[in-house]
Structures are given as structure tokens and as C-alpha cells.
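so my prof wants the structure for this chain in the C-alpha cells format not the other one, which i didnt know existed until like an hour ago. anyway here's the sequence
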Amino acid sequence: MTVKAVIFDIDGTLIDSVDLHAEAWQEALCQFGHDIPYDKIRRQIGKGATSLMAALLPEGELERQGAEIERYRSDLFKEKYLPRAAAFPGVRDLFMKLKMSGLSVALASSCKASEMPVYERLADIEDIVDSKTCGDDVDRSKPEPDIFEAMLRRLGVRFDEAIAVGDTPYDAEAAGHAGLRTIGVLSGGFPEAALRQAGCIAIYRDPADMLANYHRLPLGGSSRPHGRPAKPQRKSRAGILLLASAAALGVQALRVRRRARRAEREHPPHGRFIELDGVRLHYLDRGEGPPVVLLHGNGAMIEELQISGIVDRLARRYRVVVFDRPGFGHSNRPRGRAWTPAAQAELLRKALKELGIERPVVLGHSWGTLVGLALALAHPDAVSGLVLVSGYYFPTARVDVALLSPPAIPVLGDIMRYTVSPALGRLLMPKLMRKIFAPAPVTARFAAEFPTELALRPWQIRASAEETALMIPAAAAQSRRYGSLALPIAIVAGTDDQMVDFERQARRLHGALPHSELHVVAGGGHMIHHIAPDRIVAAVNGLATRPPEKVALDAAAE
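here's what i got, hopefully its the right format
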């Protein structure tokens, strides 16, 4: 019988969240007096809450504490751990391929109903999922078959017309009890032998591996094992080399993910979150007074601006709101849309409205200046002034665009970001830091406190590569409209900036905006907010205290 529907588990299959669930369970159980080793807990991830606690708690404790532990764990996971979850590479592309082949795609997970939309947004699959069910919809969760049986009824297909995809033996056991065959993926960390023993008929590394080997997926109804044949008749030397290379890449990808998750554990979010248009936006809200919004540059995050000292200094006088822009720090960056300065400006406008912030002074550094300008161009009444620090405003030829953009390329970029890019980034990071601070040395505080490993996570590398690729066309599109700006603008730049040319960028923008103020930091480099934070604070003070009528008169006089 030909397969008509593919039913996917979520945690560990589509979303890299198994370690996060294990940590949340360990913390929750410890809160109630149960000190259980992490590895023991992790082996149970994939089961529903009741089955998991039954396997871990002493006899009688499930009935006595189970419901309270689960409520605590659920709230803890959503608040502390869920913001750190990310989709595995290739999920949307695999779903699109299945849909183009005429198959239905569905989600069947033990997760909470409130978590399902978050996972869909992370994987960017909200618009292509045909049906979904979760642990809240059934009496018994995995490894019982209830979730899969419910999904078969919703899809209106027989068990032999569907196939399951999961990362744990419990997925395969539950699917098997419902009569379904199962494709196993190794992305959740369970050994291949355990998945095969549980009944998986094919094994792949992750969704991207399924996509790369789409023609071999067991979608024709046969129960013959696929993915990794147990007894191949002959293997060419080239075939052996390819298999070995694939295995090596898979191992490296797992190492990269583990290191990225460890970095997130060591540098957890310390702000708040707001959800808008599928983006879970992380922000820091400090101080009281007139609002000032800070936007970091490419490759950076909230921590970078904090390390400079300007957040603390400004918060003494203003309400300072600092955003992790989409894809950076702890904000996610959904696929399927171009995150241009204009797109980010629209998201920022909605965030400001949601937070009750009216007409702030917006300070952008480097790539963040493009977002600030885009906001002022599209919604001039939403901003009271702009402070543009070390910005890139006009298109120029740049070698770094060609060198740093490849990780944004679909498929190839995914492979790079989960294998060679983080290692290459660690190798080049000291040199890059010296260049962006030059001619001044890297500050001791930056060297000690900047979370380099957060910047080298695969998903942040993608965001950084995309913004590198977008910077020239974005500047070209916006530069034609700079003359329409009539709000207070302070341009702050160092004459020895080695990332953007002072004369061709800051000086030229000042010429295009005669009513702007140009603050020249003689001998300053790209990171002048670290080297001369007083100059940045002074520029903000100058705009925040400037009467709004004055700039209108200045602009009219021009």
C-alpha cells in the first residue's frame, strides 16, 4: 500500500529540545526532593509525563506528587527552556517536498498544546501542516498508541497508508502498537541499535538527511529496511568514502549542537520575551524616563551593548529597551522571509506598540543603523530621533560580503553552519575582534565577558550571514530616501573605522542630511561605544533634550 501521510514526532525529531526537556525534568524533580541523574532522565525523554515519572519516581510518589511536579515542570520549561529551542536544519524543505509529492504531513507529539504553536513557528511549518495532535488530546501518551491512533482518525487513513517519523524507541513502540511503520532519526541522541530494536525500518541522521535521501525513503509501502541497509552486497571505494564522510559530518553536527546548547545554558536569557509575527523577541527593559531603544550590529546581541557600559549609563536617566534582533542572542529568526531592515523595522514598530513605548530615541550600531533608518523612513512619527553609530549607509564594493555570506545559502549553508563554520569562527574570532576595535585594543571587559560561543551557534551564524548578504542591497534601497528624513539625527563615527569608511559613510550621510549632527571621534574605530561611551551618551542626551520643533524648522530652512 502506498503511503498517503507522514506523521512526525516533534521533540528531538524536528526540534532540538531533548536536552532542554531533560534539564527541565531534572530541575523540577530536584525541586520536589528527587535527585535523579541527568542521563537516567534523558533516556526517558520521548515518553509522556505520566510514563516518564512512573519510570523515575519511587513507588507511590507518582500518585502523591505527580500532578504537582508536572505543573511545575511545564511552567519551568515554557519560561526557562523553551526559548532556547531551535529547529533542526531542513525541516521546512522536507515538509515541502512531501507535500509536493502529494502526501499529507501531520504532527503527533507528547508535548503540551501550548508548546505546539511555538514549535511550528521555530520550524517555519505553520502553513504546511495538515493536522496535529498532542499529549493533551489523549488519555495515554507515548509509548501507548493513543496519539497515533487519534491522528489516523483525523487524517482518515488506514494504518498501512501512513508512516511515522520519530527519534526515540517510544515513538517506534507507540507507532507499532497502532500498526504504523516508523522511520527513525538519530537527532534526538538515541543509538541506532535501540531504534532498530524498537522496530524502525529505516534510520536517518535528521530531517536534512531524510531530504538528501528522499528517493530512498520507504514511502511505497514496503517494510524492507531503508536508510542504512544491514547487509550491502558490494560497496565501491567511492561509496565507502561517501558513507564515512557522511558519518563524520553527522558526528560533527551533533558536537556543534551540544556545544551550542551548552553555551545557551551558560548564558541564559536575562530579559523578557514578546511574541510577534512568529518571532519570539528577547528584550531587556531597564530604567525609567523618556524611552531610548538600542539596536545591536551584525553578529552581536544584547550582551555586547551591555558590556560597552552604555546601557547602565543611559538607564540612570532613561527607560532603556535593548532588543536581540531576529536570529541573534535569544530571539529566533523564522525562515521563509527576508529579514531586511524594513522587515525588522516593522517588527520593531509592533514591539514598541505592544510595550507601550511612544516616540523613542532609537540608537543603532553598525547594521542596527539600517533598521533604525528603515523605521524612521517608514514611520517618521514613531521615532523622536536617531543616534547612528558606526553605520553603513551607502552601497560600496565589499570583499567580506562574498567571504561571509555562504552560510546563508540553503542546504549548503546548513551543512557549513553545523560543521566547519563554528570551528572556523573560533579560529578567526580573535583577528576579527582586533579589527573591529582597531586602532584601539580590544577592551579587557569585552575580551572577558562577550559570549563568543553564543555568536557561533549555527542559527546565529545563519542570521549573521544573511545580514552580510543583505547589507549592500539594503543600503542601496534606503539611501535614495534619506533626504526625506526630517527628525533629529546624530551621526557618531570614528575616523579610523576599519569596517566602514568614515568619509564614504558618516561624512556622506551628514552631507545628505544637513540638519544632522556629526560627532567625530578622532582615531576611533568601529566599536566606539566601547572606547568612548561618554560620546554616545552625550549624543543621546543631545537628541532627547532637543525641542521637536527645532529640527522641523532646521529641515524647512534647508
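also thought this was worth mentioning. The chain has three domains: 5-15+85-216, 18-84, 266-557.
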